[in-house]
Design brief:
heterodimer; A: 323 residues; mainly alpha; MetI-like fold; two-stranded antiparallel sheet; globular; disordered N terminus; B: 312 residues; 0% strand; membrane (chain B); transport (chain B); transmembrane helix (chain B); transmembrane (chain B); MetI-like (chain B)
């Protein structure tokens, strides 16, 4: 592309090409950055600056000064070194929250991805011809905001009003969806309900991009439907599945909406039920030690854990893939 | 009327034949009736799981508190003829509970989502076009950083964003929600993929030879080519902003600035609140704009998902 522009502008004079090229390169450099600039500035403001701020503020803590024994003095930032990180790393609340989201991730993400994959394969299979209705129906929950989805499900878990709880009770099964050992699964159900259809559509798009000649070739080679699904379809959605897994893992680490809404119906859900809730409440000062410093430290440790998990998953996936 | 229906029937028949031809399988590959039945049963069961809560919310939105606990949970508590009255009652209760703010909240959501999606789409497409069609210093580093942030837990940024906006006295303003929501690494990624695949270099060349400036080329030619991609990005940013909960929860304190999701959360977290039917009505009215958008722009979001899946 550049070559043609230059030769056109240089009027075919070969000798003039060299200085011209660097001029053209300069111009291209300027134009590129000019188009990049609006996004770049906003990106710096919304992503880069907050990360720097978080790292910086994680070394400070707000203390009141000069207010006497009962406080009330002015709040000042005090450099505390790694004290905030020490607090986070030794906090049983934090690790309790991490434990919860890890269990949650380990159970919810595979269930959701496998269900989405299975539904996509069934819809893509030759059996179902009218897929639009199913596709839309499965996807609809994604259009419902997480807050609203959580409110609806909290009501559907409520023994007084829920036809599900009442129906199960009529069958002799009494479930309390808010019981300590079930509440995490109740939450996972909300996430699964919201995002399975979205992931299914991604897989379906990947499946439908597979050329049909591949199926014909496999058929001539004597493969049956199940073999085609396992040997052709699955490998072709692998990269989509990897990305969906990674995004889901990162997403569940920051679990917030569902527990925050469920808290309105279940006082057993604490302010530090998940790390994200703990970070929010710390930043708002409703947990002590509160303020920016400890909150930033929580956020940074969480990001590191999420990053390590995502990387570990990607490495394991690649290794399994290579074998 | 008859002509129309016969026409429609003919069209449907043609579609059916087409679908059959596409799925034309030899006898040995055709699924057995048992497999067929099992597949349909599984798919329908899944459909019930996904749609039942929405159906229940619709039914519940017509009930008063005593009907909510006392009546059949699967059906309306009153006859069809009384339904308009029941709906009107809950609607006025909803407006009463929210002190008339309900539609203000919906409007706020529309403003937040509309503005951030519009701004976000144009800046993402510009950046995507820049990295797809120009060589500039630091390009690969910029792409790497932006793509890396796709995997960055976005909610983690919210707390420092709050601190920064607080420091410059922007919290509790509309900008506090709009600015963070208008930056999307995913939008950049989609914009880049689309610019790479659908803007021909020859066209840019031709325009340059004709003497058009880069800005003019972008705004008169490239944007037109990328229009379908922009609808997709707009839609995803719009929905992401509409669904964002943590950010407005932290940034906003005035009732009149709340998006509808935050308003509903405020109601449900009130200890004295028990009119769940009215709340369900609010929930349904609050998601309606998003659902209408999705239904209306079906082919765009499907294309967007396909691009994300295949090129990702």
């Amino acid at each position: 592309m550049t070559a043609t522009t230059q030769s056109a502008k240089a009027g075919g004079a070969r000798r003039a090409a060299k200085p011209k090229r660097s001029n053209a390169a300069k111009r291209e450099n300027r134009t590129g950055w000019a188009f990049m600039a609006p996004f770049g500035i906003l990106f710096a403001l919304v992503f880069i600056l907050p990360i720097i701020w978080a790292v910086y503020s994680s070394f400070f803590r707000q203390v009141s000064e000069g207010g006497g024994a009962y406080g009330g003095g002015e709040l000042v930032n005090q450099f505390v070194g790694f004290e905030n990180f020490q607090y986070v790393l030794t906090s049983s609340n934090f690790w309790g929250g991490i434990g919860r989201v890890l269990i949650y991730t380990l159970i919810q993400v595979p269930i959701m991805i496998i269900a989405a994959l299975a539904l996509a394969m069934l819809i893509d299979s030759f059996v179902v011809k009218h897929i639009t209705g199913f596709r839309l129906g499965y996807f609809l929950p994604y259009a419902i905001p997480g807050v609203v989805a959580s409110i609806i499900w909290v009501y559907l878990y409520n023994g007084q009003i829920s036809p599900i709880v009442k129906g199960l009770a009529a069958l002799g099964i009494n479930v309390d969806f808010f019981a300590d050992n079930i509440v995490l699964a109740s939450m996972a159900n909300i996430t699964t309900w919201t995002f399975t259809g979205y992931n299914m559509l991604i897989f379906l798009a990947a499946l439908q991009a597979i050329p049909h000649e591949l199926y014909e070739a496999a058929r001539i080679d004597g493969a049956n439907g199940f073999q085609i699904a396992m040997k052709i379809k699955l490998p072709n959605v692998r990269s989509a599945a990897l990305l969906a897994m990674l995004l889901s893992i990162v997403g569940t680490i920051q679990l917030f909406n569902e527990p925050q809404i469920m808290q309105t119906a279940d006082p057993g859900i604490s302010k530090s039920y998940t790390p994200m809730m703990m970070a929010m409440n710390t930043s708002q000062g409703t947990l002590t030690p509160g303020g920016d410093g400890p909150a930033s430290a929580i956020a940074i440790v969480m990001a590191l854990i999420a990053g390590v998990l995502a990387m570990a998953y990607a490495l394991v996936e690649r290794k399994v893939n290579a074998e | 009327m008859i002509a129309m229906s016969s026409q429609a029937r003919a069209r449907r028949k043609a579609e059916k034949l087409q679908a059959k031809a596409a799925n034309d399988l030899p006898r040995s590959m055709r699924p057995s009736p048992v497999v067929k039945v099992i597949t349909i049963v599984v798919l329908v069961a899944a459909l019930i799981y996904f749609l039942f809560p929405i159906y229940w919310a619709i039914v519940a939105s017509t009930k008063n508190p005593s009907q909510m606990t006392g009546s059949n949970g699967l059906w309306f508590a009153v006859g069809i003829d009384q339904l308009p009255d029941a709906i009107a009652t809950n609607y006025s209760k909803l407006l009463g509970w929210t002190r008339g703010q309900f539609w203000r909240w919906v409007l706020n959501s529309l403003i937040y989502s509309g503005v951030s999606a519009a701004v976000g789409t144009i800046v993402a497409v510009m950046a995507g076009y820049a990295t797809a069609k120009f060589n500039f210093r630091g390009k690969n580093a910029a792409i790497g950083v932006i793509m890396g942030c796709m995997l960055m837990p976005a909610a983690l940024l919210t707390i420092p964003q709050y601190s920064i906006f607080h420091a410059v006295h922007l919290t509790n303003t509309m900008l506090a929600v709009i600015i963070p929501c208008s930056v999307s690494p995913f939008g950049f990624f989609l914009g880049r993929v689309y610019a790479q695949s659908s803007v021909p270099n020859e066209l840019l060349e031709a325009a340059r030879i004709d003497g058009a400036g880069e800005a003019r080329i972008f705004f008169t030619i490239v944007l037109r080519i990328l229009a379908p991609a922009m609808v997709t990005i707009f839609l995803f940013l719009f929905v992401a902003t509409w669904n964002n909960f943590l950010l407005p929860l932290m940034m906003l304190s005035s009732d009149s600035l709340k998006p509808v999701t935050l308003g509903l959360y405020g109601m449900v977290s009130l200890a004295t609140f028990n009119d769940r039917g009215a709340l369900m009505m609010g929930a349904l009215l609050g998601v309606l704009p998003v659902i209408v958008l999705f239904l209306g722009l079906q082919r765009y979001w499907q294309a967007g998902l396909a691009a994300g899946a295949v090129k990702g």
